[in-house]
Design a protein that fits this description.
The protein is mainly α and 231 residues long. The chain is built from 9 helices and 3 strands.
């Protein structure tokens, strides 16, 4: 997906999570494209991506609908991702990383360091982080050499917020968001160190915890603990 496409997905995801697009609302390409001031094609692609994430349901004739999601679904899918990515990290550490993988991971870390070095983040920064985060996670998955983990993750990504790219960003709390995403990036440094040292158990533990950090729970539940996408 292009940078523009990822940005549209992020914008629409935030509108769904915030309740601007409430549960049960029908979304169509043309009005959504007009709302965002863009063409229909990136909206169509974004709808498909959000359907794969479990946030939208495709309607029989045309368009999509914001689906009802339970807290159990979200927590379960994130826990499964943590287990699978933790297993991938452990197996990658035990096998050892080849030189090209090490260099690509270092590039992701440097790119992230540059992103957070200014001490604040914007929506565009989150889109950049989303790309490098996916690349870093993909490298770990590839380094595990286990296609079964990849297949299981793809299946799990059909559940809400299970994908490593399904990041929620709250522009109203920029200081908090900077700390949260910077901490997630520091975890990348930690798991890379563990991978290089071939510390399987440590690599697994960091990745399992990392799955929880990318999701801002405060943006998803209200003061009563009710998920914002529930009726």
């Amino acid at each position: 997906m292009t940078r523009e496409g990822q940005g549209i997905v992020s914008i629409l995801r935030d509108k769904i999570v915030s309740g601007e697009f409430p549960v049960g609302e029908r979304l169509a390409e043309i009005p959504t494209a007009e709302l965002l001031g863009i063409s229909r094609t990136p909206v169509r692609i974004a709808f498909r991506a959000l359907e794969q994430e479990g946030l939208l349901t495709k309607l029989p004739r045309r368009g999509y609908m914001v689906r009802k999601i339970t807290q159990h679904e979200i927590l379960g899918s994130i826990e499964v991702r943590g287990v699978l990515e933790g297993l991938a990290a452990r197996q990658a550490a035990e096998k050892g990383l080849d030189d090209p993988t090490i260099e690509q991971m270092k590039h992701c870390l440097v790119e992230g360091d540059d992103l957070f070095s200014k001490g604040y983040i914007s929506q565009l920064d989150i889109e950049s982080y989303q790309r490098l985060n996916k690349r870093f996670h993909d490298l770990i998955l590839q380094a595990s050499g286990n296609p079964a983990i990849h297949a299981a993750l793809k299946l799990n990504e059909n559940l809400p917020f299970a994908s490593a790219t399904a990041l929620v960003f709250n522009p109203a709390q920029l200081d908090r968001e900077f700390r949260r995403f910077n901490y997630a990036h520091m975890q990348h440094h930690g798991v890379f160190d563990a991978l290089i040292k071939r510390q399987g158990a440590r690599s697994e533990a960091i990745m399992r915890e990392h799955a929880n950090v990318a999701l801002s729970y405060g943006d998803l539940w209200d003061e009563q603990g009710k998920y914002k996408l529930l009726d």
